[in-house]
């Protein structure tokens, strides 16, 4: 399945392939492998070929990427994009990225990322409200000590 990340104008800004692990009425979970060079990120290093288990929702304002180390298979954490609800169709899933992200380390530390980029987008208050509602919903998932898998 092809994954298409889009900007607010609907233009594809990144795409890659993944394999469907699970599909239900409102979501799809895909396995994909990090296809960029190794790069430091927060307290970890994202490595080329790290395993990503990515869940996209048609009824939620985010997606969740569970990240596993390529070498030892250990969980590194969860990268959560605040997005418009995903569009899941035969052969591809697409989402519109809305700048704000949430990083949750394997130890449970949470960091909100890119709020400054959100302000630069100049969005209407209604859309900003949906973005922060999605962020709060994610925070509650992880506060419950029962993160989604």
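-> sequence recovered:
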């Amino acid at each position: 399945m092809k994954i298409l990340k889009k900007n607010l104008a609907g233009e594809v800004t990144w795409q890659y392939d993944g394999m469907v692990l699970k599909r239900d009425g409102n979501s799809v979970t895909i396995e994909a492998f990090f296809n960029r060079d190794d790069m430091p990120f927060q307290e970890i290093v994202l490595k080329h070929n790290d395993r990503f288990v990515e869940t996209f929702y048609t009824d939620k304002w985010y997606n969740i990427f569970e990240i596993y180390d390529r070498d030892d298979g250990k969980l590194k954490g969860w990268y959560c994009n605040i997005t418009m609800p995903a569009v899941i169709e035969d052969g591809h899933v697409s989402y519109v990225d809305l700048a704000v992200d949430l990083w949750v380390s394997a130890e449970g530390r949470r960091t909100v990322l890119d709020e400054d980029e959100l302000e630069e987008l100049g969005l209407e208050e209604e859309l900003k409200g949906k973005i922060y509602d999605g962020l709060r919903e994610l925070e509650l998932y992880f506060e419950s000590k029962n993160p989604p898998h």
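The first helix runs from residue 115 to 121.
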